[in-house]
Amino acid sequence: MFKRKRLIIAVVFVxxxxxSFINFIQPKYVIPIAMYxxxxxxxxxxxxxxxxxxxxxxxxxxxxxxNYNVITLEKAADIIKNKKKAPANTIVLTFxxxxxxxxxxxxxxxxxxxFPATLFIIIDEVGRPEGDMVxxxxxxxxxxxxxxxxxxxxxxxxxxxxLTSREDIRREIQDSKKVLEVKLGRKVDVFCYPAGRxxxxxxxxxxxxxxxxxxxxxxxxxxxxDDVFALKRLRISQNCANLFIFWIETSGxxxxxxxxxxx
Length: 263
Ligand SMILES: [Zn+2]
Fold this sequence. Notes:
The chain has one domain (31-261): TIM Barrel (Alpha-Beta Barrel), CATH 3.20.20.370. 43% of the residues lie in helices and 14% in strands. The protein has helices spanning 2-25, 53-65, 73-81, 100-113, 136-144, 166-184, 200-208, 243-249, 254-261, and strands spanning 33-36, 38-39, 50-51, 69-70, 90-97, 117-121, 148-152, 190-192, 213-215, 234-235. Strand 5, helix 4 and strand 6 form a beta-alpha-beta unit. The protein is globular. The protein binds zinc ion. Zinc ion binds at residues 96-97, 153, 157, 194.
């Protein structure tokens, strides 16, 4: 009897401790924005930008089975900007560069589960003769499904911070929007910095060009989590084939862990 009492006291004590600790560090929930690139059956071990179709399919099934709230980037940006409360298990799916395999492996799964996603395409790469990038027809088909939103990832994918001419930067950001709008027959509101690289001037050009949202990768603590012109994203690489790692990374608290781990 005495032992049981002691156990209860210990449990209460530990619970209070954990609660106080969580309260003390105040972890901020940030809607996870997953960043995928190629979904490729022949992923090399050191390739951090590709995962296998099997791993991707498992992750999407995991989201479905655990009732994740998969929303569009636009909806997430609205929640973030206006400081609304996001429903539990909210997640956004984004795909960079416009690989053909996104059409082959990703699109059927998005349709199967009704998940929305954003595809950031490099305009000059579309329909590349080698056949490893999406074609305009692929893009049209994905757009017509109502599930895929297409955003600009510039014409040529240069590191914008390395461009010396302001005119070149403006062209990659603003003209790519215009060209894409004509090609797609709809407004293009979302932009993706190549390699996630940007600075204050580049960010301002994105705003002045009329975009509503821009995504980065991991710009660090200095950039606030609610900057809709530099949204942080989680790189999903092959180590996330492990659903436990995937679950942690997409928990909404991973940015906090990541940003406090380094430096
Ligand atoms: Zn890219």
